[in-house]
């Protein structure tokens, strides 16, 4: 009778232990399966990355072979080179807020290649505004800089031509009286060439 009593008490305990053991085994199997899946996924990613590198290497080899086979003079002649710069007649002092006071200097700068086409040249520029009626020591009344990133975003144009459009705040510079000249120096980042131009503002 005691044996039956112990059997009744211990049976649920054994069943619970069996369930726990079975659960642990299933959990271990699931963990191993997840690890295998992750290892398989990592392997596929490595294979894909390796295939991309092989394709990129083949493309670069093809480009190198193509360039190597070109005649040196042809390589140089094929490059579009900056030849000169010019300011369009739209450059001037503007009243942006319509208060009868000039508060904005606008520049339309064309960078032109060796066959006369306007090109988007990589570079930076320095802008100066001069009042030729002032004393020599006071003639330079404004100076601004435009870096490569600024110029890169300033490329604009019309159906007839293209140019860099730049705007600078005059910051209270007196422009009511005088004869004003705009001077621009452009630094070509491809060749290191420095080009200059100027224009009288009407």
Could you list some keywords that capture this structure?
202 residues, 31% strand, 2 domains, alpha+beta, single chain, five-stranded antiparallel beta sheet, Immunoglobulin-like, 3 helices, four-stranded antiparallel beta sheet, elongated
Account of the protein in words:
With 202 residues, the protein is α+β, with helices and mostly antiparallel strands. The protein folds into 2 domains: 2-72; 80-200, Immunoglobulin-like, CATH 2.60.40.1940. 40% of the residues lie in helices and 31% in strands. It is built from 3 helices and 9 strands. The chain has helices at residues 2-69, 72-78, 148-153, and strands spanning 82-87, 92-94, 104-113, 123-131, 140-146, 155-157, 162-169, 180-188, 194-200. The strands form 2 sheets. Strands 1, 2, 3, 6 and 7 form a 5-stranded antiparallel sheet that branches. The chain has a 4-stranded antiparallel sheet with strand order 5-4-8-9. A hairpin with a 5-residue loop joins strand 8 and strand 9 (194-200). The protein is elongated, with a radius of gyration of 37 Å. The chain starts with a helix and ends with a strand. The mean pLDDT is 83.
Question: Which helices and strands, and how do they pair?
Answer:
Blueprint: H1 2-69, H2 72-78, E1 82-87, E2 92-94, E3 104-113, E4 123-131, E5 140-146, H3 148-153, E6 155-157, E7 162-169, E8 180-188, E9 194-200
Antiparallel strand pairs: 1-3, 2-3, 3-7, 4-5, 4-8, 6-7, 8-9
């Amino acid at each position: 009778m005691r044996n039956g009593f112990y059997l009744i008490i211990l049976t649920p305990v054994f069943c619970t232990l069996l369930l726990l053991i079975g659960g642990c085994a299933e959990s271990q199997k699931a963990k191993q399966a997840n690890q295998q899946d992750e290892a398989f996924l990592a392997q596929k990613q490595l294979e894909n990355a390796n295939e991309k590198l092989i394709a990129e290497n083949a493309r670069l080899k093809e480009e190198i072979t193509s360039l190597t086979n070109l005649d040196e003079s042809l390589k140089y002649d094929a490059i579009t080179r900056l030849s000169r710069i010019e300011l369009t007649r739209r450059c001037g002092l503007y009243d942006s807020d319509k208060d009868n006071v000039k508060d904005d200097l606008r520049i339309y700068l064309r960078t032109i290649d060796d066959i006369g086409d306007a090109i988007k040249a990589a570079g930076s520029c320095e802008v100066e505004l001069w009042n030729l009626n002032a004393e020599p020591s006071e003639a330079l009344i404004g100076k601004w800089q435009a870096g490569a990133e600024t110029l890169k975003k300033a490329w604009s144009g019309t159906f007839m031509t293209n140019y860099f459009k730049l705007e600078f705040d005059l910051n209270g510079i007196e422009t009511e009286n005088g004869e004003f000249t705009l001077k621009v120096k452009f630094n070509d980042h491809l060749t290191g060439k420095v080009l200059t131009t100027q224009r009288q503002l009407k």
